[in-house]
Amino acid sequence: MSIVALSRMTLLGSHGGKQGTLRELQRLGVMHLIDLGPEKQSTPTAASASDTRKALAYLLDCPIKRHQVPDDPDFDHSTTVERALDNQRRMRDLEDRIDFTRQRLKNLKPWGDFDFPPLESLAGHRLWFYEVPNYRARQLTDVALPWQEVHRDNRNRYIAVISQEEPAADAMPVPRTHTGSVPRWQLREELQRLVIRLDETVAEREALTRWIHLLHRHQAQADDAASLKQAQHLTRDDDAIFAVQGWVPQTALEDVRRLAEEKGLALLNEPVGPEDQPPTLLDNDERTAGGAEIVGFYQMPGYRNWDPSRVIFFSFAVFFAMILADAGYALLMLGAVLFFSKRLKQSRAGTRVRTLGFVLVGFTLVYGVLAGSYFGWSPPPESWLSSLKLLDVNDFGQMMQLAIGIGLAHLIIANATVAWHHRGHSAMLAPLGWIVALLAGVMLFYAIPGDGLALALGLVAVFAFTDTRPIHEPLDLLKRVGGGLYALTDVTRAFGDVLSYLRLFALGLASASLAVTFNQLAADAAAAYPGLGILFYVLILIIGHALNFVLAVVSGVVHGLRLNLIEFYHWGISDEGYPFKAFRKTETTLWSN
What we know:
With about 600 residues, this protein is of the alpha+beta class. It has helices spanning about 20-30, 45-60, 75-110, 185-210, 210-230, 255-265, 290-300, 310-325, 325-345, 350-370, 385, 395-420, 430-445, 450-465, 475-490, 490-500, 500-530, 535-570; strands at about 1-5, 5-15, 30-35, 125-135, 145-150, 155-165, 235, 240-250, 265-270, 280-285.
């Protein structure tokens, strides 16, 4: 659970060896490339890799798939991807045109089948069409232009008007209806042609599905080629030499040195300078690395900060368990994790999420047993399960103390870790002051003697040591005082953040209350309707608990993350970083976050 130390390494060599050097760096997969281009410009996107993924998704979505070809020496990856994407474009275009044509036929149906006569046959007059609602039909008697009703239904009357120019807006009760110049018989023929072409396109798509297996195999190659092409635009190039630079974990420096010796490259190794902003590479035990996935999803800590992954891993599990608050729901979640387990194991990130899922199940099961809730039912008082019940979610006093205590502990851990990170420096006294102030605030809340002095001492430490810049002139002293005063504005936020953890109690109570309510509704339905009531009983239980389970899981995820990534981050993480992205082949996962 740490942030990996990095060094900046620069390789210089002859321009002719650039491609080979980049290929070897990609094979090593240990360098986060730095853009050395003379001008900041957008690098080319990995179009081919993206196109491959789009083509695969399109073919995998085909309802009917052909027998897979395991190997074919004549297989052309680029051509197959291009054909699949072209098929997708034609499919969408045909479906849109078919929908449009069908809608046109539907709109023209009330007017019947007709062809527009030549203008000379009507002495230069044209036909203008109007859909007049039946309730406005009386207004037609005031129309001076020659008109004829061609159709009527329960809503409208369909009127054709003969005029050389389009009638004025107030000449008819309603605006003109645009029917277009194509008659219905031509639209029917066009629709038939479009449907035939759509059938041919569908058949072509089904034929292309035989290449899904080979596309999967070549996808990694396409990703690697696109990544290599992108890296070529990040180097510094001269007439005869090139330079490539990047951040490398210190444990991999020897690998890059060996590469430089083999390729005859000049090598410059520089430590991280005070003005540098390196990427952040997290090093976590795989058993608790699910916290790193949460951190990476929300906000990566800065390089000079600390790794909160393990704290977030366990605190998120605790918060989730308190919100779900039911051992029966824990078993439902276990079933869901087992159901998706095989799919999750296919990737490193998925494996981490799978492990986190099992931990969430374990914590929720334990908390549900301690709360004595099993799908909203409590075990009989004389049972051994009842003896394990130590918490009562309906005891507001007990649950409020528990939630506040957990919130206090969470923020103390954040400040304590920051203090440890600044150990040996006066800046460590500011987070220690916040710890004292938080404890004193809780003592004040529960009217414990001695709270006032402790609170004052804690806030003095916050004021004096939040800004620790050296004082060389009066302006520096003024800035330190301003920094201390600004830090004290977080007093209200500190106690507000502690009270924010009461949501654990409130959401857990809501989940438990809904479970009990659905159980009671089911029992009432069974008692009210003998015989048929059994069916109502089962349906209410299934639908009610399924709904409550989904709501509880969503609440557990949203609010569990919120308490970690808003309240906790505010006190524990001072700056935001960006993730370390190794230039590597797709199959390499050694330096993945």
